Structures are given as C-alpha cells and as structure tokens.
Amino acid sequence: MQSLPVESDRHWRRVLPPVLLCAGLWGSAFPAIKTVYGIWGQAGLSTGAHEYWFFAGVRFVLAGGILLAAARRPLGDFMATPKPRLLGFALTQTFFQYLFFYLAMSLASGSLAGLLTSAGSFWWMLLAPILLPVPWPTRRQWIALLIGATGITLATAAPGAGAGRPVIGAVLMLAATGSGALGVIQFGRMKETIGARAATGWSLLIGGALLLIAGAPAIPSAGVLFSTPVLVLTLWLAVVSASAFSLWNHLSTRHPVPLLAGYRFLIPLFGMLESLLFLEDESAGWGLGIGAVLVIGSLVMSQRMRS
Q1: What is the CA 51 to chain-centroid distance, rounded?
Q2: Which of 29, 43, 96, 228 is deepest in the core (most CB within 10 A)?
Q3: What is the C-alpha to C-alpha distance for residues 122 and 299, in angstroms, rounded to an integer?
C-alpha cells in the first residue's frame, strides 16, 4: 500500500503561520511603545531622549536575559567569539538601531514608523554588495528600490492623523533600519562561532545595558516612569523581542533564508495595521495608504527578482 506524500517543509502552509505570528508579535511593539509615551503624556511627565533610552534599555536587558536563558551554550559561544565582532553586532543591531528608533517613535506616528521598518530590506540590498561578496542589484531591482523610495516619500508627506513630526521621525527611522542592516552583516561574520539565539541574546543584553547608560539621567525618575501599566507593557515588549527572535531563528534553521526573506514584508505591514487598529488618535492619510501599497509591492517585486 502506497503511503501518502508528506507535505514539504517549504510549503506556504507550513511557513506562513509561524511567520504571521512573528510579524504579529513584532508589529505589536509599535502601538505598545506609543501607548507608553501616551501614558507619560497624560500623567504630565516631562520626557525626552533620556527617558526613551532608559525605557528601551530596560526592555532589551530583560529580553536579552530571556534569550540567553533559552540558548544552548551562551557562555561557551561568548568565549569562542571575537569580542570586537560581538561588540560591533551589539552596537549596530541593538544600541544604535534603538537609539534612533525610540526617538523616531516619539516624533512619528506608530503606523508610519511601522511602515518605515521596510527600509531595512532596501538598506540590505544597498549595503551588502559593498561589505560582502554579493552582486549589486539588477536594473529591475533598482526600479523596485525607486518604487519603494517613492512609497516612503508619499507616506511621510501625508501619513494621516497623529503624525507628529513625520519628516524628522522618518529620517531617524531610516537611520535605525540602516544600523539594523549593518547588524545583519555583522552577524554573518561571526556565525561560525556563535548561535543565532546566543548572538541575539548577547546583543540585546549588551546593547540594552548601553542604552541604560545613555538614559542614566532618567534613573531618579524610574519609579514615576514605570507605573504599573508601563511596567506591564515593558514586560510584554521584552517577551515580544525574546519570543519573536527565538521563533524566527528557529525558522531560519528549517527554511532557506531567501524563502523567509520573501515574507519579511509582513512585518512592516503588521506594524502599520496594528498601530492603526489599537491607537485611537491615528488614522491613515492618502499618502500612507498609497505609500504602503508601493513599499510592500516593491519589497515583493525585489524579492521575486532576487529569487
């Protein structure tokens, strides 16, 4: 009797559900961070860069600790990895990325910030040929990049209600995603000596500690800043970082990286949609709507051409 064929691990029915979970978790970070900022505003607290960075530092130190506790041999991997490379990874993936990111979130709407995370894929296409032995984008991929840039410009020009200061926020978000893309390249240079989970855990822990140092002037106000609702949201954000990274790293061991990269467009899409859904003071303007279509379309198009 002939047995039924086993469904391929690469079939979309097996890949899409966990990717949707990752995108949903990461997407929830945008309304959660904006909600914390809103709680501080309603309480009449005077907050600025130091408070944002201290808040980020607490989140990522917690997330890094959770990931390292779940890693197989975090200390062994730490000892086997060249420390300058590990520090460079922590600086690019966590410290500088979120130094810019948390400032951007205070200036731009959550929906615009969520959409602009798509710039990380464009940065990768531009930076990888310079720093790694990979080919430059083809002519059609350059067209896809141009379409994506047009979408980002339109989204920034008319993001809708609750936009704040979208231009400055967009510039900071582009800087954040550029640093994150450099982090991916940094990890490629040390993956032979350290696992993805341990590397991310150390990056979050070290980068989070540096963010705490950057936000040190806010320490005297920590008791006021971290009210019960803010503390709950901070814990949620730490769990989001640890669980989403763990799940994504697990997926990367089961599926080809180009296959997963093709689904990355879901992350900015979820970030935008969840912000519009959960933040009452935000609504989509015409620029955000059209820009989202162009950005997501360009990501899908560039990925198909790369494949």
Answers
A1: 20
A2: 29
A3: 8
**What pTM does this model have?**
0.86
Is residue 2, in this structure, part of any structural domain at all?
no
In a domain? residue 218: yes
CA distance 32 to 148: 26
Question: How many independent structural domains does the chain possess?
Answer: 1
Q: Give the number of residues written for the chain.
A: 307
The strand ranges marked E within the chain are none
The two structure tokens encoding residue 190: 């040390």
Tell me the residue range of the domain where 233 lies. Answer: 28-37+48-306
SS3 169: helix
User: Distance between CA atoms of 276 and 145, rounded to whole angstroms?
Assistant: 26
Tens digits of residue pLDDT in 12-38: 667 778 888 988 998 999 999 999 999
Query: Is the residue at 13 inside a domain?
Result: no
Tokens describing residue 41: 């505003």
**Which backbone phi and psi does 268 adopt, to 5 degrees?**
-65, -30
